[in-house]
Amino acid sequence: MMSSTTVRRLGKPCLALVAAGLIGFGGVPLAQAEGPALRPDMVRTLQSMQSQLEAGDDAAVAARAAASASRLEGGNAADRWARALFLQLAATANARGHQDARAADQFAEARRIDGVPAARRLAWLQQEARLRLRAGQTRQGADLLTAWVERSGGDDASRWLLVQARASLDDWSAASQSLDRLRESGTQGWSSSQRQLASTVYQRSGRFDDALALLGDDQDSPDVWRRAASLAQQAGDSGRAAAIWESGWRRGVLVSKEDLRQLAKLHIAGGTPARAAEHLAQWLGDGRLDTSADNLKLLAQAWTAARNHDEALSAWRALAERTGRGQDWQQLAEIAYGWGEWQKTLDALSSLRQAGGEVSGRDWLLQGIAAAQLDRRDLAREAFRQAKAAGVTQAQQWLDSLG
């Protein structure tokens, strides 16, 4: 089940992997043709560093290119363009040496230089964004990547990276907007992990119908439905979680005994306890659930939450008769008393004593009140005397009221 914590935990490795796969720095000979003409000696120096970089001497190129860029600060248009190219070389070398934050800073510096062609500035923006993400500077990287996508139109790989970045920041609204653009070209080619990420994003942004629409071929996977319902529940929408689980059950996917119990629990938590009770009654009746104490108790809780007095009291009695436990008879008495079902309160407490359960001072008090309400004054007096002996202070007031 994929929570926001899970997304954050998975985010950094995923971002690093995608960023590493997408960074392409381009060669200097190609780039230098875009700007002002350079002096021959400057061209030879750039080409020398490019060859050195291709030979794998990253550290030397990083230091040498950065020093060359520093010496050209404040020059004319050609010097500024050469400085930008030296910074590109330094950034490329640092990125290859896994100095991602330093490389990102150098790309940022290069694209701010006056006179850099717009196309090159845009390319360096993309490279800086990916390096920020790879360096763990997720928010800054996501903002930069968003800017690049908006200016360039982006591509699917960049948008998936952006979705992952925004999700790792819990920025679900922005992540869902990027997903919307990806869905415009269809979802047929999406991998299982991409569908899982997309479903998480849509659910966390409250767009459950969109999340369910993404289940696709995974609609026969119980884990997909469980994850969807769990995320809705984590988002505080138990009603939606119940609706999702119900859909999975009706589809014939969530049909194990524990799945049925979970559906009932979700209906109770989601504000539709009568639906839970109806399901449970049917499943207990046709054998899909056994009549264990746990299942009978769940049925009783469902009818109680639905405030169906007759069904709830009947269910609690069936449970108490099945278990013989004093606590179940006491629960029946408490519920009957709370609903003003006086005779059923007395019956439950009588059964408690017959079952050999421990009768508390409160039990005697409830019996006395129920008997008084039924105008059974002698029974009420005896119960109040027992309650008083057990230390219940209210008992004397009730005795006084009976005269």
Automatic annotation (TrEMBL):
Domain of life: Bacteria
InterPro entries to which the protein is assigned, alphabetical: TPR-like_helical_dom_sf
Stated name of the protein: Tetratricopeptide repeat protein
Organism (species): Salinicola acroporae
Classification of source organism: Bacteria, Pseudomonadati, Pseudomonadota, Gammaproteobacteria, Oceanospirillales
